[in-house]
Amino acid sequence: xxxxxxxxxxxxxxxxxxxxxxxxxxxxxxxxxxxxxxxxxxxxxxxxxxxxxxxxxxxxxxxxxxxxxxxxxxxxxxxxxxxxxxxxxxxxxxxxxxxxxxxxxxxxxxxxxxxxxxxxxxxxxxxxxxxxxxxxxxxxxxxxxxxxxxxxxxxxxxxxxxxxxxxxxxxxxxxxxxxxxxxxxxxxxxxxxxxxxxxxxxxxxxxxxxxxxxxxxxxxxxxxxxxxxxxxxxxxxx
Amino acid sequence: xxxxxxxxxxxxxxxxxxxxxxxxxxxxxxxxxxxxxxxxxxxxxxxxxxxxxxxxxxxxxxxxxxxxxxxxxxxxxxxxxxxxxxxxxxxxxxxxxxxxxxxxxxxxxxxxxxxxxxxxxxxxxxxxxxxxxxxxxxxxxxxxxxxxxxxxxxxxxxxxxxxxxxxxxxxxxxxxxxxxxxxxxxxxxxxxxxxxxxxxxxxxxxxxxxxxxxxxxxxxxxxxxxxxxxxxxxxxxxxxxxxxxxxxxxxxxxxxxxxxxxxxxxxxxxxxxxxxxxxxxxxxxxxxxxxxxxxxxxx
Lengths: 238, 299
Ligand SMILES: Nc1ncnc2c1ncn2[C@@H]1O[C@H](COP(=O)(O)OP(=O)(O)OP(=O)(O)O)[C@@H](O)[C@H]1O
Ligand SMILES: [Mg+2]
Description:
Chain A is an alpha/beta fold. Chain A has helices spanning about 45-50, 75-80, 95-105, 110-125, 125-130, 140-150, 170-185, 200-205, 220-225, 230-235, and strands at about 5-15, 15-30, 30-35, 60-65, 65, 80-85, 160, 190-195, 205-210, 215-220. Chain A has a six-stranded mixed sheet, with helices on both faces. Chain A has a four-stranded antiparallel sheet with strand order 2-1-4-5, with helices on one face.
């Protein structure tokens, strides 16, 4: 198995609170892997530690064998990591188009930026219609599309999504998940998906990890996790 | 009528200078959410930089010419841009993750340092400043000073240039992104530190230009010359809506106009008091400033 990202013994503390207790997992190249868990389990913290927004208290993170522990977020973007954060964080004071340009901040090849932009617009046509609109005036679902599109503009190898379904109508959630699968297939981008909606997450992913109070308690192929009685009871509503 | 126009033009010139300083306050607030109290002293250093540059290099440049003045002004702006960047790096950056109060107090310390180092190096005595000879231009009943015209022209050019940078360049867009949310900006690959440095450079260069324009219209410069205009420019920035760039320009011009009209009236002794009273009134009705939006402070 060809590993893209490997996390080993990662710990994160917020003051006296231990949010992650030496967790280890790995993500194969080209896969969609999901991380599920209930509120406060440490999912967001895990993504923030990988993208450099959160300092870790120990452990190591490797991207294709090279240690990336302790690098700053902007250095990690350069190495191909894109993170769609919890709550989307689109630049409300910038237009849709400017948000996408910021996603391509480190890209210098204008032609390549154009190609990526065309791909993003083809994936989310709604964004093109709203090109000149301030991002703050988009609906929640549109903001989620923008957040994903903006992350794609950096031409990542590895895309992390933190609860893309949050606050979005079920019908649109289906669409967005279909797009995520499409991005993964067409662009060969490896995806780490964090979700509360475990059902859907396990449906689109090939492998899953279950996080509980800062520890990984289960790891298996997504199909098997869906059959797991413990998972069914805790996350799939019985 | 011509009396009114005269006061209006004087006010506009004064306001233009306030606007140039206010922009620095508001831009730094935009990216760091703190008031750089040393900003008013950068304004002072700008005037002194021009004073010394013209003493040292004046003889290599065409004397009393627009070309010579332009070169000296640009050099002073560059020097202050550098000073602003160094101050941020040495004094503010190490405190970035601490409480805002720490940085605020440090800024006051830097301000005092610049003022008293200025008295030490430049001398406390006022120095006469003459970059260009001033001529009076008569337009009908109005008397316009050539230096006032320079204030209008230069402020306009600088404001347009700033607008272009902020609205239409990659780094300007990144500045706006950073002022919205540091973490989201970092996730775009933006190096937050460089954008903050750039913001300080930009604001300080504008303050230097303001200092030079101010000095051209007043008889002398001294190391404490920044205190009062700096305070007023800060108020102008708040008046326009702190963090809002067009607001700072508008607030500056408005403050200059109010001050000029009050000075021209029989209440001239109370000019500053009345100008500030009007501002307090405006802020009572629009607490977020004229162009400011009420936003919930992010944590
Ligand atoms: N900045 C912080 N300061 C202190 N504690 C924090 C901070 N951020 C998170 N925590 C704590 O760390 C734990 C993990 O939080 P995290 O946000 O990673 O959970 P999560 O799995 O993403 O939850 P959710 O599904 O609700 O988003 C929680 O107990 C939370 O209270
Ligand atoms: Mg979370």
